[in-house]
Each structure stands twice: as structure tokens, then as C-alpha cells.
Design brief:
The chain is mainly alpha-helical. The chain has helices at residues 2-10, 25-30, 37-50, 53-73, 76-91, 96-115, 128-138, 143-165, 170-191, 204-212.
Amino acid sequence: MTSLSLLQMVSPALPVGAFSYSEGLEVLIQSGALSDEHGIEQWMVAELQRGALRFEAAALPALAVDLRCWHRSADSVARSRVIDLDGWLLAMREAVEVRAQQLQMGGSLLELLAEMGHPLPDVLSLAWPAAWAWASVALQVAERPMVEGYLYGWVANQLSAAVRLVPLGPTRAQVLQQRLSSQIVDLAEHLSGVHPQEMWSGGVGASMAQLAHAELYSRLFRS
């Protein structure tokens, strides 16, 4: 059941709007900083190794534990921890467009889970990482697949954007996804037991690209 639930969560058919975001990739391609398969791969490797994405992936286990307590026993302390960590992760994203993306996708996922019979009580909104953690709890996805699935979904969405922006066909995108699978597994293992607030990020380039997206004259994506 865990495997089937995870497949549902990472499916491109999941109605959360992920396909409409590039997270700064559009800026980098329009500027000529990235122009081919090799550049796209190196960019994603750098983000997996040093980007803010790592904070979110590392936070998932703690969010899942507190969300489970909150749901089972209306634990107000656990609820407060979820809200605090959710807000901290959102604040780590400098660009307004990316923060809006996180909130929109998180809200859409919570709505979907409620339709599936897994409402989260007493919640106004959660950003994407916390909503993903709740989906994992509700659908009984174990900790390691939860983290790997989050990273896999990010890679898949970046590749989906790249296919529409550079000469990178869907076949080569699948080859890239497969090549990056070892990076995903290694990162998920490395993050095990690490608290996100004890980590560092070197994703300045990504942040600058995300901030510049709002100034593009012509855009395909929302971030």
C-alpha cells in the first residue's frame, strides 16, 4: 500500500498545479546561463547538494511526527511546532512568487486529502512541505520514501519545465531523472536525523533567479 500511495503522490496528475512553476529555471534559461542537458543536470545536482530544498526535505520527518500527534490527540503543542516549522521553511524562500507557490500547492494538496477522507483538523493553511508530510502520514508512507518522494517530485517538476524551455526532449529528461536517482537516495540518507535549522544553504544563485522571475517580459511559468 505504501508503494501505491507514494506513486499517487509523485504522479504528475496530482492536481496541485506543480506543472505551472519553474522555481527560477525560466530566468536562467532566458538569460543563457543554462542551455542544454548538461547545464540542467549540473544545476539540479547543485540544488540537491546545496539548495534550500534540503531544508524542506530534512524537516519532513519532524513535521510528520507532530502532524500525527496533532491529528490523533489534538495535541496543541504538536500543532504549534508544525505551524512554527512551516512558517520557518516558508521564510527561507526569499522570492514572493516561490512563497506563493508553496502556499498554493500546499493548500491544493490539503483540499485533495480532505476529499479523500483525510482532513486535517483546525488548520487554515500549510505550505507544500508540511502538506506533503501530512499526505505521507494520511496515506501511510514511511519516512524514507516520504523524503525520497519529495526530492523525486522536485526533480521531475524541474525536468518538466526544462522540456518546455530548452532543446531537451522527454526521452532525455527520463534519462536525466534516472541518472539523478542516486543523488536523491544519497541525499535522503544524508538528511536522516538532521534538523533543518542546523543546516546551511548555498542556493544564492537559485534565490536570485527566483527573485528576477517577476521582472521577465515574457513568461511561461508562475515562478
